[in-house]
């Protein structure tokens, strides 16, 4: 229960634009979850997806892309290609790649 509440607090931080606090909270939640659950549990996967989202918003695009790729592989294996969570990861990875491409185009 407490981890769910902290996860919700992290989402609130994201909504308020306090990405540093969101990242720290998500990392704390992940550490606690990993002590009690396997890496491929839905709760851990969800928090890893939240962390990738925060990385993207912070402009840490390579970290976001890497984490989204890892999550996508895990979800494809665990849930299959057409599961809503797998499709969400496809969308998240596409958004990260698009933002990374835009950033690289602006740099040139």
Descriptive notes:
This protein has 108 residues and is mainly α. It contains five helices and no strands. The protein has helices spanning 2-16, 19-36, 42-58, 61-79, 84-107. The radius of gyration is 14 Å and the shape is globular.
Topology:
Elements: H1 2-16, H2 19-36, H3 42-58, H4 61-79, H5 84-107
Nutshell version of this structure?
This protein has 108 residues and is mainly alpha-helical. It has helices at residues 2-16, 19-36, 42-58, 61-79, 84-107. It starts with a helix and ends with a helix.
Count every beta strand, where a strand is a DSSP E run of 2 or more residues: 0
Question: Secondary-structure element sequence?
Answer: HHHHH
Structural class: mainly alpha
Q: Report Rg.
A: 14 Å
Sequence stretches where pLDDT stays below 50 over 5 or more residues: none
Portion in strands: under 5%
- For the terminal residues, how far apart are their CA atoms? 48 Å
The overall pLDDT average reads 90
Tally of helical segments? 5
Portion in helices: over 70%
Shape: globular
| Biggest pleated sheet | none
Keywords summarizing the entry:
single chain; about 110 residues; 5 helices
